[in-house]
Specification:
Blueprint: H1 13-16, E1 21-28, H2 32-44, E2 58-66, H3 77-88, E3 96-105, E4 110-115, H4 117-126, E5 141-143, H5 153-160, E6 168-171, E7 173-180, E8 189-195, E9 201-203
Antiparallel strand pairs: 1-2, 1-7, 3-4, 3-6, 4-5, 7-8, 8-9
């Protein structure tokens, strides 16, 4: 990969097939210091990114699926419960540790890399929902934004990469998050959370 790939700011009906929402399993990170670091990175890379990005910092574990809708199959309560059974098999019984490890980029998005061994373990038990035909090594990360054009990746990384303060977290919950399929980079809404210390599921 030598250049960025432009994202498209549009609806994708060929993907969602009329379903209004999609869901992801993710770790939400509520930390003002992280907010500041990601906001600063967006400012540094503003010339390369779409201006709109409404999602709070989070680390996606896996795409759960397109939400079921009247007359349309999809991710429903039964699928959620099946995922919960798988995830409970690796619930650690205590908070999990994560830390920011540096700046990097996929073809379409720059990101802050996150280290956390449990994330890989949990991803491995629910990765069956990964989109077929798009294999990708799992790299836990916090997305900075979406590229709006094609640029040399080295040029973008030179702008993105600056010294990073120490950022570490102890996380007690894994969230199921929902977003509107027709909104590009629209906000995420919590559907519920799995307690990593007890395995209890709490709807939002």
């Amino acid at each position: 990969m030598t250049h960025t790939l432009a994202c498209e700011d549009r609806d994708f009906p060929e993907w969602h097939g009329g379903r209004s929402h999609a869901l992801v399993w993710a770790v939400e990170i509520d930390d003002p210091d992280l907010d500041d670091v990601v906001t600063a990175a967006r400012h540094r890379c503003a010339d390369y990114l779409f201006p709109a990005y409404e999602r709070r910092p989070h680390v996606t574990l896996t795409f759960a699926g397109l939400a079921a809708a009247p007359g349309l199959p999809g991710y429903d309560d039964a699928a959620r419960d099946a995922d919960l059974t798988l995830l409970r098999s690796v619930v650690p019984g205590s908070p999990v540790s994560m830390r920011a490890s540096g700046w990097d980029s996929f073809a379409m998005v720059p990101y802050l890399a996150i280290d956390g061994p449990w994330l890989q373990t949990a991803h491995d038990v629910v990765r069956h929902r990964t989109t077929e035909g798009h294999p990708m090594d799992y790299r836990p990360h916090v997305t900075v934004g979406h590229y709006r054009g094609r640029w040399p990746l080295d040029e973008v990384l030179a702008t993105l990469r600056t010294p990073l303060p120490a950022l570490e977290w102890s996380v007690e919950e894994l969230s199921l998050l929902s977003y509107e399929t027709h909104r590009f980079a629209g906000p995420l809404t919590r559907v519920g959370a799995l307690d990593l210390t007890t395995g209890e599921w709490t709807p939002a």
